[in-house]
Amino acid sequence: MTHKLQYSKAFDPCTYKQVEYLRSFDNVKIDVHSTSQILKRLEKYIASELIDLAKNGEEIILTDKN
Q1: Residue 26 is part of which domain span?
Q2: Residue 57, pLDDT score
Q3: Cα separations in angstroms, 48 against 1, 11, 61, 66
Q4: How many distinct structural domains can be found in the chain?
């Protein structure tokens, strides 16, 4: 599954801890230039959903590219 970051700032941004937890999974690839971009543009609830998917073994690509 590929998740593209939204262009605008998140209303309720994810936490640094969520991003680092996502990075800890072998089945998660993060193709974003900087962690700060993820923190600004990824909603907290979406990060939680991605973490749940990663826990279930889903292959996830988080990107900001088209």
Answers
A1: 2-63
A2: 95
A3: 15, 15, 15, 23
A4: 1
Q: Residue 51: what residue type?
A: I
Let me know: does 16 contact 35? Beta carbons within 8 Å.
Answer: yes
User: How much is the mean pLDDT over the chain?
Assistant: 95
| pLDDT at site 65 | 83
Residue ranges of the chain with per-residue pLDDT less than 50:
none
Task: Dig out the tokens for 59 from the structure.
Answer: 């292959």
- d(CA 43, CA 45) in angstroms, rounded, equals 6
Cα-based torsion angle of the residue sequence 26, 30, 34, 36 in order, rounded to the nearest 10 degrees = -80
* 3-state SS assignment for residue 4: strand
Q: How far apart are CA 22 and CA 27, in angstroms?
A: 9
Please give the angle made by the CA atoms of 65, 29 and 54, to the nearest 5 degrees. Answer: 120
